[in-house]
Each structure stands twice: as structure tokens, then as C-alpha cells.
Request: fold
Amino acid sequence: MYLNHQAKDWTSDQEFVPEILSFHQRLPDFAETPLRQLPSDICQKLGVGQILVKDESTRCGLPAFKILGASWGAYRAITERLDCLTTSSLDHVRHLAQETEICLYTATDGNHGRAVARIGKILGVKVSVFVPRIMLFKTREFIKEEGATVNVVDGDYDAAVRAAETESKAAHGILVQDTAWPGYEEIPKWIVQGYSTMLTEVDEQLKTLYGEGPDLVIVPIGVGSLAHAVVGHYKQKGRRTMVLAVEPDTAACLKASLERGRITTIETGDTSMCGMNCGTVSYTAWPYLLSGIDACVTVTDSEAADAENQLRDHEVHIGPCGAATLAAINKVCQHHKEELRLSKDSIIVLLATEGPR
Reply:
């Protein structure tokens, strides 16, 4: 496990944008997702106070949290292209977007591309999604069912991102990507902002239950955009929350980068945690993760599967990416409780980012 003892003293400068929640509330099928308490016997076995699962298995009618970032990122980009206010109605933006024949481009391991396709359908614009060759056929079909065109790339996720960038430039389209690199930073920043709705919900739900925030939040890592949002939110002045990142042992690009002190691209292998199978940390997320992540741990597919079954036994139906967070706390409580200051009073939140695959 990677540890950063300086993270507890680091303060985020990330700003809260109230407009984002009101935007999400205008989307079809929007509703607050549940924060589920795990049984006391699990907590007692691990020696902690409470473990709560933020269940993102159904968000705006999709089986993952990604629509929060994809919708806001795409909407901001479209309204900027159209030179209209972000407070404009969805109907108004849809009408203008259809007149100008805007097309959105993106690359995905699954949930992000489906989310971009969904906001494209809501706004009546074309969407072209690039996917790595190892993507499951049924995942491609889910994206197609949203009305998007799916392009299979003979390579991994990073290759799909490069292909989407190339095509969007050639067609003068809008690239809506949840990872950033030098020269492509604005839209990924808006996507990160979109995730704030989930974290605002967590705060309000915990306030109702306990009157206080979490001691530890565990976040799964792909390119690190959700973790960017988590660190930016929970490392604000006056907060004491620690952040634990979890990655597949076959795609630990954040851990490799943290250990070297710079963004380090790695070659990834196959994993059941498909949405976390990324080889390069997002450029804009990196400064936040380097300074604000308290610890980073890897888990195996087997450990994630055991955690998924453990959750299912308690009627919490979560996919492997979300279950990785429970696998992480299971592992950490065996070996590293003192480093993360965990005790029988600790309140722990697991960000369960997707439903069953």
C-alpha cells in the first residue's frame, strides 16, 4: 500500500458550483441514490464503527454514476459552442444543437461512453463512441441502444482515446472525455465538477444519520477523475476526511505514478474491473491525487469478486468496480488500520460506482 502522510495537511482549492445540482435535477429520471448501511457484524469484524455504501447502481436510469460527469461536461461544452447560457432549458439547447448538427465524440471502457450517448439522446445530437477491442459485445450493444455509433479500436483504452481525439478534430466535433492531457483540460474539468452532486448527497445523507461527515472515503480509480472530485471535495479547509484509492492489481497506474512522483503510463492486463482498466492518470487530476490521496491499495479480481458476493449476501447489488472499495477496506483493516487512523468509531463511505455487469 502506498501512503502519503502529508495528505492530511493538504487543503484543496476546488470551488463548489451550486448550478450543477439544479442542472442534474432537470434530467429525466434524476433521483438521489441511496447510502446503504452495511450490517454491524461486518463493521465489528473489521473493527470500525460504520460502513456505508453509496449505491450508484441506478443513476438517471443508467447503471453507474458516470452520467453525472458526462452530462455536465457535454452540456457545458455544447452551450459554450452555441454561445447560450448554462441555465437555458434542455428544450432550448436541444433545439439549437439540432440546428447546428453538433456531434459528440468520446472513448470508453463502458459506462462513460453509454452516459455520453444518453446525454446526446436527451439533447438530440449525434454521438460517436470509440471502444477498445476487448470490450464485451453486450457492453457495445448497451451503448448502441442509446443511439450512438460504436467504433471498435484495435488497441486498449488509451488507443481508443487517441482515435476519438483524432476523429473529433477532423470532424470539428466536441470531444467529451473524462481524462485530460496538455491542451485538453476544460471539458475534463467540467466532468469532474459534475461528480460533485454525488458527494453533496453523501454529505446530506450522513448529516441526517450521524450529524457529521465521513472519516474515510474509498474511491475506485480508472483515470482518476472521480478521485479528483473526491479529493477536491473532502480536502477542503476544515474537513478531516481521509481518502483511500483502490485500483486493480493489473491496472495500477495511480499507484505507479505516486511511487515515482510523476504521471507514469503502464501496460494494463485483463480485469473484471473493466471501468478501472486504464493505463494513464488524467493530467488535470494528477496534482490533486499526488497531494491529496492519503493511501492507495490494489486488489485482485478474486478479492473484488469476494467483496461483490459479500455485498450481494446483504442485498446490495454492485458491480466489480464498486465492490473493489469493500475489497480495499477488507484488506486495509487487516494490515494498515493504524496508518489510516481507523477505530471502532470510524465512519467509512464506499463509493460503489456501478451496478452488476
